[in-house]
Amino acid sequence: MNIFRLTGDLSHLAAIIILLLKIWKSRSCAGISGKSQVLFALVFTTRYLDLLTSFISLYNTTMKVIYIGCSYATVYLIYMKLKATYDGNHDTFRVEFLIVPVGGLAFLVNHDFSPLEILWTFSIYLESVAILPQLFMISKTGEAETITTHYLFFLGLYRALYLINWIWRFYFEGFFDMIAIVAGVVQTILYCDFFYLYVTKVLKGKKLSLPA
Amino acid sequence: AFRQMEKDEL
To answer: A38, A18 in Cβ contact below 8 A?
Structure first.
């Protein structure tokens, strides 16, 4: 464990908690893409099946359980409890255009052709594009609530910190995972546009509205 | 090592 991975995990946890609290306290999921949240629940489900097969550390197990629990709770709030506030008309990204290519790629490019490894690879690839429905929704509505931008900031920051963690681990441990790194770079690049708007607008107290 | 055998990252 290194400081970059730890702050990355805490940033990820902060994003997940911010979103869940925002929806729960405001009793509304307006502006939130339910499709992205379903994709994240799928990412965690396919990645953390090893909860059933191996124990790595209390930290590892605890965080995985929290991530899975919060992501399913968020999906539940959006599609069941607070369904009336779900803005389906703007959440129209065709997720099948993500899942099918990602699923195919996971079969073609992986470290080992075993079920757990294929699912892990699918999860890594899917996570890199899972935010697209949310970013697409913001571009359609033309704006985002400030709390939603904080959620996106921490979510984008987490994988950027993981990139530094992988540089650190390559340098000090000779460890690297090309699949995770390439997907992580793609994932972080997708946030660059948002990061620019977040820094130039939200951090100056303005509302995030598009076109910029 | 090409990849850590143990998946110790989240």
So the answer is: no
